[in-house]
Amino acid sequence: MPTSIGAVLAHLFDDAGLFPPAKLPMAEALAAHRRASSGPHSRVVGPFLCPATRLAELDACVASGATRPSTIGVIGYDGRLDWRGVFATRGLVQVEAPLGVTTPPLPGRVIRYVELPHHGPVDASLDAVAAMPGARAKVRCGGPTWDTVPSVAWLAAVLVGAVDRGLMLKATAGLHQPYRSSGPGGAHHGFVNLLVAAALARRRAPVAEVAAVLATDEEFEARKLPAAVNGARGLVASIGTCSIDEPVEALVARRLL
């Protein structure tokens, strides 16, 4: 793997195997995470993501012999959660919650991700995240139906707006393949497109130029890709995926891993 590509892919994919469309049972999700974390492409694997409401189930599986993930991200959709219990999670590195859900101050170096309203107003949402010390944005790039896929203009505005406010972000949902693709359900964003667009946004490219990169379904030349994605991780901290295997297989097929 070229060094510059390796730096961009390092711990890029947060493991969302518990979430749709995979929705693996807890034991299967933990086993899959263990295999990915100990396999030949372990360098791309990020934290294991778990709903706050299923932490007890995770602990029970570990008590029964499953391997506990070394790093865990917890997703909470309800401000009435037992946040003290969430913060006591061993291996906790990040907490994610929608904009509008109030969470207490996070302990230590735990990162806060604030999910933007899907298709919502970009500037107001990013301003709200920027007002939270140390917070990062979370953006959904897809969903179960074609109409949940945000437009390239909206996503480009999020990238450029985050740079303008000095925010980092994570992306999730629908980013299964490296490049933009179309199918019976409509278009889907590609994670390589996203990384190239993020690198452009960090170089202060205008929204229209960033959107054009998100919109293209042409694959970037492998020899030009290291330069094209250079600096992307200064904006895109990670990408959530319900299957680590799928993006890894696509990268291996293109000799990028």
Helical fraction? 25-40%
Order of helices and strands: HEHEHEHEEHEHEEEHHHEH
CATH secondary-structure class: Alpha Beta
> What share of residues are in beta strands?
15-25%
Mean pLDDT: 93
> Biggest β-sheet, characterized?
8 strands, parallel, barrel
CATH topology: TIM Barrel
Estimate the global geometry from the Cα principal axes: globular
Q: Give Rg in angstroms.
A: 18 Å
| First-last Cα distance | 5 Å
| Helix run count | 10
Which regions contain 5 or more consecutive residues with pLDDT less than 50?
none
Number of strands: 10
Number of domains: 1
Examine the secondary-structure arrangement and name the CATH architecture.
Alpha-Beta Barrel
Q: Which strands sit side by side, in order, in the main sheet?
A: 1-2-3-4-5-6-7-10
Secondary structure layout:
Elements: H1 3-9, E1 13-15, H2 26-38, E2 45-51, H3 55-63, E3 72-75, H4 83-87, E4 92-98, E5 111-115, H5 122-130, E6 136-140, H6 152-164, E7 169-172, E8 181-183, E9 186-188, H7 191-202, H8 207-215, H9 225-229, E10 236-241, H10 245-253
Parallel strand pairs: 1-2, 1-10, 2-3, 3-4, 4-5, 5-6, 6-7, 7-10
Antiparallel strand pairs: 8-9
Helix pairs in contact: 6-7, 6-8, 7-8
Quick synopsis:
The protein has helices spanning 3-9, 26-38, 55-63, 83-87, 122-130, 152-164, 191-202, 207-215, 225-229, 245-253; strands at 13-15, 45-51, 72-75, 92-98, 111-115, 136-140, 169-172, 181-183, 186-188, 236-241. The chain is of the alpha/beta class and 257 residues long.
